[in-house]
Design brief:
- Helices cover about 25% and strands about 20% of the residues.
- It is globular, with a radius of gyration of 20 Å.
- The strands form three sheets. It has a five-stranded antiparallel β-sheet. A three-stranded antiparallel β-sheet has the order 6-7-8. It has a two-stranded antiparallel sheet with strand order 2-3.
- It is of the alpha+beta class and about 210 residues long.
- It has one domain.
- The protein has five helices and ten strands; from the N terminus they run H-E-E-E-E-E-E-E-E-H-H-H-E-E-H.
């Protein structure tokens, strides 16, 4: 679900490659005082991944934190008690200098948690192209692109770096409790050879990927 939930953040903040990622995973004890060692055969019960991004396109450096397995950031004080914090599939919390924004999975039902700014936002012109049919029209958006129309909203130029960023979170979860430094242009973990070994596949002799 990472690509679906992080997508609105990745797009709105013009993110690309993080400079570092840190992961933390839940701890399980097989008996009193004896921690179960992770075998990396399946995902942990819960995890946190922390990404740091550099300044880009006139925007300041920013940090992004992923929570899963029931873990959540603190509920914003500005959020009314009967308002949902995301939805049943997850969601996002943007924390800015002037206000906070919450939304559900896929960026559904975004809300500015500041009444005055919420009214001001209604006056802004919509500049991002909308997909016909909303969240249920993305398949047709892809088909139109295949037939020579406008590029799909999640075309490879956009979705490739998004997927790479999410996969860096997976790598940080596999190698938790350390900071992995990432060179996105070279696709390389620069400070951990064991983690970097998972970035590119090593094919057995006689096998390869055709291009």
């Amino acid at each position: 679900m990472g690509c679906h939930i992080i997508d609105p953040i990745f797009m709105a903040l013009k993110l690309r490659y993080p400079t570092s990622v840190e992961g933390n995973v839940s701890t399980v004890y097989e008996s009193f005082g004896h921690e179960t060692k992770s075998k990396n055969e399946c995902y942990p019960r819960s995890s946190i991944a922390r990404f740091k991004f550099p300044a880009r396109e006139g925007l300041v450096p920013v940090e992004l934190t992923w929570w899963d397995g029931g873990l959540m950031p603190s509920r914003p004080d500005e959020l009314e008690e009967d308002d949902s914090f995301g939805d049943h599939n997850g969601g996002c919390l943007f924390i800015g200098d002037k206000a906070k924004i919450v939304c559900g999975c896929y960026g559904e039902k975004p809300r500015i948690l500041n009444a005055d700014l919420r009214q001001e936002a209604k006056k802004l012109a919509k500049t991002i192209p909308r997909i016909l049919g909303g969240s249920t029209g993305h398949e047709k958006d892809w088909i139109r692109a295949c037939k020579g129309g406008e590029a799909a909203s999640s075309n490879f130029d956009y979705s490739g770096p998004l997927s790479e960023m999410v996969l860096m979170g997976n790598l940080a979860i596999r190698y938790p409790d350390r900071k992995l430094l990432w060179d996105g242009e070279k696709m390389e973990v620069t400070n951990d050879k064991a983690a970097n070994a998972y970035v590119r596949r090593q094919y057995r002799e006689g096998f390869g990927l055709g291009v």
